Amino acid sequence: MNRSLTVASLAFALSLTAGHAEKIVIKGSDTLGAKLVPQLAEAYKAANPGTEFSIAAEGSTTGIAAIIDGNADIGMSSRRAKPTETGAAGAKSVSLFPTIVAYDGLAVVVNEKSPIKGLTKQQVEKIFTGDVTDWSAAGGNPGKISIYTRNTSSGSFSDWKELAMNKRDYAAGSQKLAGNEQIVAEVAKNPNGIGYVGLAYIKAPGIKVVAVEGQTPNAASVRGKTYPYARPTFYFTNGEPVGKAKAFVDFTLSAKGQAIVDQVGFVSVGK
Amino acid sequence: MLKQSTVQLMALGLVGSFAATAAAQDSGALIDALVRKGVLKDQEAEQIRSQLSKDFAATAPAGKLNLSSSIKELKLSGDVRLRFQYDNKDAQPTTTAGAADTSSGTQRDRWRLRLRVGADYKLSDNFFAGFGLQTEQKSDSGNQTMAGGNGSSVTGTSAAGDYGQNYSVFINKAFIGWTPVPGVTLVGGKQVNPMYTTDLVWDADINPTGFSERVDLHKFLNLGPLELSLVGLQFIVSDGNESLTSGKTNRDGWIYHTQLVAGLNVAEGVKLTVAPGFYNSNAAQMVGDGGNEAGFGAGTSTGLQGLKIITAPGDVSFKIAGKPVKFQWDLAYNKDGSDRNALYTVKSATTATAPVSSVYTVFDTATSTFSSVSDANNHARAVGSAGPAGGTTFVVAQTTKGNASSGTTAAAVSPTHAGTDDLAYLVGFQIGENKKKGDWSLLANYRQVGLSAVDPNVNDSDWSLSYTNMAGFKVGFFYNLGDATTIGTSFYSANNLRKDLGLGYALTNSGPGSISNSVQVLQVDLSVKF
Fold this sequence. Notes:
The complex is a heterodimer of chains A (271) and B (530).
Chain A: H1 2-19, E1 23-28, H2 30-33, H3 36-47, E2 52-57, H4 60-69, E3 74-77, H5 83-91, E4 96-105, E5 107-111, E6 118-119, H6 121-129, E7 146-150, H7 155-164, E8 175-177, H8 180-189, E9 193-197, E10 207-212, H9 219-223, E11 230-238, H10 243-253, H11 255-264
Parallel strand pairs in A: 1-2, 1-3, 6-10, 7-8, 7-9
Antiparallel strand pairs in A: 3-11, 4-11, 5-9, 5-10
Helix pairs in contact in A: 3-11
Chain B: H1 6-18, H2 28-36, H3 42-59, H4 61-64, E1 71-90, E2 106-123, E3 127-134, E4 144-145, E5 170-178, E6 184-190, E7 209-216, E8 226-238, E9 253-267, E10 270-274, E11 277-281, E12 308-311, E13 314-320, E14 323-334, H5 337-343, E15 358-364, E16 369-375, E17 393-399, E18 423-432, E19 440-449, E20 470-480, E21 485-496, E22 518-529
Antiparallel strand pairs in B: 1-2, 1-22, 2-3, 2-4, 3-5, 5-6, 6-7, 7-8, 8-9, 9-10, 9-11, 10-13, 11-12, 12-14, 13-14, 14-18, 15-16, 15-17, 18-19, 19-20, 20-21, 21-22
């Protein structure tokens, strides 16, 4: 009886040891977490067998909160930390450390059938704040403008207000969607739709990118900051990254990692 | 991983020298400029931003506040006032109309305090909201009597011992507002009174509960130098039970006050403001009194009846030797004053030439019988008060001698109506203001308030302790000991306007305490605003 128990315990312990793999928990931005980080994770696993990833892409706010609460090794974010988040982190002796891992440009997208080719920054602001509600006032065919935005936990939601809306509120009738893919899908279905998505999503069918002030988002205009809605994207860690988090951050910033960044559609950090 | 370089440290020092800690959040533009000029790399800039944000959160008070992103502006405010108050109420003669006062009246002094704290929020999408707390439930006062507890008034009984008991706090403001377009303001909830008024009609302490609307017409029309606003207030004062099938208590009681406020700069530094308006009610029956320190209306439903009051406050403001001066006036005329009179009850006049004993119809709760009792001591007693000592009785009706008989209830008597009953007016001035250390202000006004001219549940609870059928004055002087600290005194004195209301009673609804032919109130205040 006792012998059987000892053998079973030993077998269980061995099975745990054999099954143990280094797991990196990453939470946060949908912009980063829907495409880029999973591909980086696959490449990292190929180079580091036995490593496991848990990736949850539910918005930048959730990524920063996860670092503050100690629930993730890396928090993905398409925006900077807010003062309230920095304060909350300080209260828990957590130091939010940002690392720029890629650049992105928030592209203004409309239905591919729309005659709109370009907008001014002022027109973009007026459309998304609801000052302008019909395409005829923005150079398009008459029709009520349908606005698609990210939801409030998204870093893009905050960044867009900052970059494009002069910190004003979104139009009352704007529809909040969970991710970039949902936005391009809705805009592709709606001839009067308009939205904003990260560079990695602008090649979706049924949509087209609108130039803003004559600038279209691409690697050169984003890295050179001539595109008005360019922004850095971040990994947040508790202090400077260490251990398994540092290994993955370093991989992301490596030549191989940055090649994936460019391949997915983001703009690499460069040297 | 990047380490903080010498350049970073220099940049951090540079940014820090430009930006006070509390303003670290505004350093973004400087950091961006350093990045553009190639002094900093993007990653270095982000680390500096992060460090400044941490410093801000750790050291600046604002950085420790976690406010909702929907809040555009938050204002916290409050005040504490310590007050000494002395009241004198001379009782009415208890016999013939117009007879000399033979009573020593009621005198009382109280040490009082008032705390008010609150917050006003400006929110996204042109909404706003606010709340306030204060140390008293009765909205026309706000005072707690030290060691006297809630609601201690001049007629209250002596309080029990109090070796430092704490005081209650009540909500005096809780409102939500919206400005859909510039020039239109809508507010719902318990709010600061939006009406332009003096304290002839409205006690400045009352924050009405209900809804208000303001439309600044001059923002929609080109009116030149004229500022014209339409203001409406719907003030709910009684929650009726709609399931009741009869009587006027089966609906809510509402007061409506609507005004057209016109302001005109008639000359450099001289502004004229007039605000004609109409104050009325839906005449619902109110249960109980007005709930204020000076409340009327119990029993006979006088709270909302007979109120159709034309109001016309105004002022001319200008400066003399740098001091702001304001001449104020107010007028109130109740076109239903005679109806209002009929709702009041007074003791009927007697033709007796010598003092007589009062007779009460009393109900003995032990035997369930009515009987008439003479009060040989000639004490005034109100309906509902305890009967003569020694029995389990209470007064059902009060009559003049000889009018009551066993088993009957004598009818209440209303005062005769006179034209002066319907009219109230105020004229006065104020010199100076109290905004910073060394400022002073002096104010004085005279007013006459007819018996039925205004609503005694909302008029000033200090002047004449809210009683109507009175005429008298108010004077006050206030001096700023500091920018936020003011000391001052106010004195109010009023006498009966008509002496022929039965035995001179203005109202008997609230019991003997409301029977006065002369009222003096002295207040000495020390207050601090924060």
